[in-house]
Amino acid sequence: MVKVSLRGVAKYFGDVRAVDDVSFDVKEGELFFLLGPSGCGKTTTLRIVAGFYKPDRGEVYFDDQLVNDVPPYKRNVGMVFQNYALWPHMTAYDNVVYGLKVRKVPASERVRKAKEVLRIVKMTEYADRYPNQLSGGQQQRIALARAIVIEPDVLLLDEPLSNLDAKLRLETRSEIKRIQRELNITSIYVTHDQEEALSMADRIAIMNEGRIEQIGTPREIYSRPANSFVAGFIGETNFLEGEIQDIDKERVLLAVKVSSGELIYARMPHDNFFVGQKILCSIRPERIKLTDEPSIQGEAQLYKTVIHNLTYYGVIEHYVLGGFGGIDLKVTNFNPTTHRRKEGATVYIYFSPADVDVFPL
Amino acid sequence: MVWKGQGGVGRLFKDVDRTAFLMFLGLLVFFGIFLLFPILYVFRGAFFEGGRFTLTYFRLMFTDAFYRESILNSVKIGVFTTLLTSLISVPLAFLTVRYDFPGKRLMQGLLLVPLVMPPFVGAIGMKQFFARYGSVNLLLMKLNLISRPIDWFGGGFFGVILLEALHLYPFLYLNTSAALANIDPTLEEQAENMGSSGFHLFRTVTFPLILPGYLAGAIIVFIWAFTDLGTPLIFEYRKVVPPIIFSMVKDIWVNPMGYALTVMTLIVSVGFVVLARRYLSRKSYEMLGRGHIVPRVRRIKGWKVPFVYLFLFIMVLAALVPQLSVITTSLAGQWFLTVLPSEWTLDYYRVTFTHSITVTSIINSLKYSVFSTALDVLLGILIGYLLARKSFPGKDLLDSVAMLPLSIPGIVIAFGYIVAFSKTPLNPFVNPTFLLILSYAVRRLPYTVRAAYSGFQQTSVSLEEASLSVGATPFKTLVSITAPLIMANVVAGAIISFSAAMMEVSDSLILAMQEQYYPITKAIYSLNLRLGDGPYVASALGIIGTLLVTACLLAANRLLGKSLGELFRA
Q1: Minimal Cα–Cα distance from A75 to chain B, Å?
Q2: Contacts of residue B8 in chain A, CB cutoff 8 Å?
Q3: Across B229-248, average pLDDT
Q4: For a designed S-S bond to B345, which of A151, B188, B333, B541 qualifies (C-beta 3.0 to 4.6 A apart)?
Q5: Using 50, 70 and 90 to split pLDDT, how confident is the model at B294?
């Protein structure tokens, strides 16, 4: 098992800065995700780890060995490509066994290993087919088998599920996770699908415009986004512009006056903030609660709003509310009652200060 | 080989791009010496005398009645041939793309047969059929349809046009039918929906959409007919430009008119290509919408059936007449004032395989073609690889230079080689082997470049990267992944290049001057001039060459399937 470290890695294509000062450590046996919008540099970063690009600055280490100048074929890295890149002139079995032949693994050993891997990906009975005789999902499994049969130090997956249909994608997610756990391979997985990342990852690095915005477990990333980009990129949220009115150090509370005049409270470490600072608040739609009666709910403050739009989904209800914060506020209500609120009606909202994130502007 | 550089396959490392750039410079030197230098040399001969610029010889082309008439004849041959091929090809393309009928595939195959025999070989046979006392006149006189023989070839002028058209229409047919098959049927359906139909629909929607494809083919036809040397020579029709240039090769050091005429030929050819490209770039339409196009195919029904078959039958027959006439000639033991030979013999084939000129020429042609094809494959893979996989400054330049030979007539390159290299160790008057190989190679290079390029394009880089990632070295990757995947394309391109070299006319006639270096085509030409059995042995040799080429093309067809026709497109 190998640990992968990137230190200040940068890559330019002409004048375009594809990857800019990226550093992270992938622990042994960890399933590490690079998540970000398209063009954020995640695939470039992956290809730098694979050795297909040489970084313009910075270092890449496998354990303590600097691999910047090691060509891809000497890195012992298995890679699953977005388009699978199965060799069309070879059968599934030949695709899998190719890497072993290249490594001059003895024939009997080769057959045993290839069969074992085909069993793991549940493709034993399709071994003799050519790639064009396999479905998308089956091709994907062969691509995975080809990458893991060489017992790579690191497994790289470049959007491996993006060409599968929705149902198959869900099945394959757990399958990949199972195999990764079973073989305990240090893995880096690139995707733009946040659900995929949140549900599979040990840790996630969120990338944007070539830089890493935040690294953390799925729960950390979702519940405590490091900045407004992460807050906006992962899940849905409401952004409110405002100014810090007061800092209550004892109760660890920030009082924020939003641009439409209301005062809201956020439970945040106050070290980085000062009174009068312009800031951006983020509140997730599902953290906002609704009530028809203006009675006090604990310590929470109540705000009066008007229902602009209401969409019913069965499990949830989705509201767009006006009259608070000067924006159209998105609110998700779980377990909606049978009682139907009317558009145009007044409704009161409240939320816990712990659910408000504040970012400097 | 490219791939052995320490950087490996694909766009992997920056330092490989430096290697790519160096190879690009090397290729530029190659093209500079064997494509641009000879052409510039011809320009210098045409415009400079004793170091001073002069327009005397250029002016002479238009003031002298003989030259003026010859140039006009050349242009006329080009234009009329293009018109005649259009009349044949467009209806054929329409019928075969839009309609389904029994025997369509066979018909499409037969329509391509004329590609394999150069028109000047066909001309030898046609002369026997259509001469003053040839088969056709004799037959018509026997049937009392005419009393005096008809001059079918109009002193050679119509003969040349007929032969060129019968040889060249497949080019136009392939281009037009491909364009037609590519039209999204909904475009026509929409027009019909708005009330357009019949010829109006064709004129307003269909024709504008196939025009780019049609023009691309029409340019090939025009340039070929305008610059073909062999056919007018066989018809002894001297009042056209190519034979005049041919006859001036022997006094290149005293008479600059050859230079001027060559420059004129080049300017007209390239001028047409440039004009057409400019027009096309304004008129080329991207087909929007659905990726996969299913052309509108209807079955022919009712009263149209006999007409369609009659038309196709006439076309196929006409296309096969030159071949049939050459076969008949090659088998004619006794043929004097009779419609068909009165005796048949295989003697001329025996002569072909025993006579020193013919045997030597077959060996020479094989030798030249093998080497020129090898060079084409090598350069084609290299250029195709650089164009498909690399980015470096000057890439567009490489692309245009590699495709340039498509629009430069063979006669221009051949004349250029003679004048530019006859004072160097490559002197073709002494031994033309090297220059023949190079001229064949340079002219057919676009085919292998295009074939290799599309091979690389179809082979995703990630297939190579996948191989590297499981531990294969770049060389191993080249051998076991890249090479097998582009092989079919490269082999097909090589076969096209080889068969074209085997039956190449202009370079062969001009550059090969001593008997021991004659390739097949020059041997056919010189045998035909010989009294007695000359035309018969020449026909037999022509048939043998044609069979060789046919075998090659059939092999390419097997390898590539339907896309063979695409290689002939502009």
Answers
A1: 8
A2: 71-73
A3: 83
A4: B333
A5: low
Which residues on A lie below 8 Å from B460 (Cβ)? 83, 85
Return the pLDDT at B137.
72
| Contact partners, residue A152, CB within 8 Å, separation at least 6 | A76, A77, A78, A185
Query: B27 in a domain, yes or no?
Result: yes
Place of tokens 């195999």: A179
> Quick one: CATH architecture of A4-232?
3-Layer(aba) Sandwich (3.40)
Side chain identity, residue A198? L
* A89 in contact with chain B, both atoms CB, cutoff 8 A: yes
- Which of A50, A82, A87 lies closest to B469 in CB terms? A50
Same domain, B171 and B26: no
Q: Which is nearest to B371 in space by CA: B282, B441, B291, B445?
A: B441
Question: Cβ of B12 and A72 within 8 Å?
Answer: yes
Please tell me which residue of chain A has the smallest CA distance to B481: A87
User: Which tens digit of pLDDT belongs to each residue from B340-368?
Assistant: 776 777 777 777 777 778 888 888 888 89
CA–CA dist A233, A36 (Å, integer): 8
CA distance B245 to A177: 76
Q: For residue B560, give the CATH number of its domain.
A: 1.10.3720.10
Residues B226 and B87 in one domain: yes
Q: How many CB pairs under 8 A join A and B?
A: 81
- Across chain B, what does the average pLDDT equal? 79
pLDDT greater at residue B301 or residue B550: B550
Is the CB of A85 less than 8 angstroms away from the CB of B463? yes
3-state secondary structure of A324: strand
Listed by start position, the domains of chain A span 4-232, 239-360
End-to-end, the C-alpha distance of chain A in Å comes to 42
Residues B20 and B169 in one domain: no
**Residues in B lying within 8 Å of A, measured between beta carbons:** 6-8, 10, 12-14, 460, 462-463, 465-474, 476-477, 480-481, 484-485
**Cβ <8 Å between B473 and A79:** no
With a cut of 80, say whether residue A297 has pLDDT above it: no
- Whether B282 maps to a domain, the answer reads no
Same domain, B321 and B444: no
B29-B31-B33-B35 Cα dihedral, nearest 10 degrees: -160
Distance of CA A172 to the CA centre of its chain: 17
Residues in chain B: 570
- Please write the tens of the pLDDT for every residue from A9-55: 999 988 888 999 999 999 999 999 999 998 899 999 999 999 988 99
Please give the CATH number for the structural domain made up of A239-360.
2.40.50.140
pLDDT at site A62: 93
Please state, in angstroms and rounded to a whole number, the distance separating the CA atoms of residues B296 and A341: 56
Same domain for B470 and B416: yes
| CA distance linking residue B263 with residue B261, whole number of Å | 5
Same domain, B189 and B326: yes
Same domain, residue pair B32 and B175: no
Residue B112 domain boundaries: 81-239+299-333
Least confident of A152-156, B335-339, B442-446: B335-339
Residue B152 and residue B79: Cα distance in Å, rounded?
A: 19
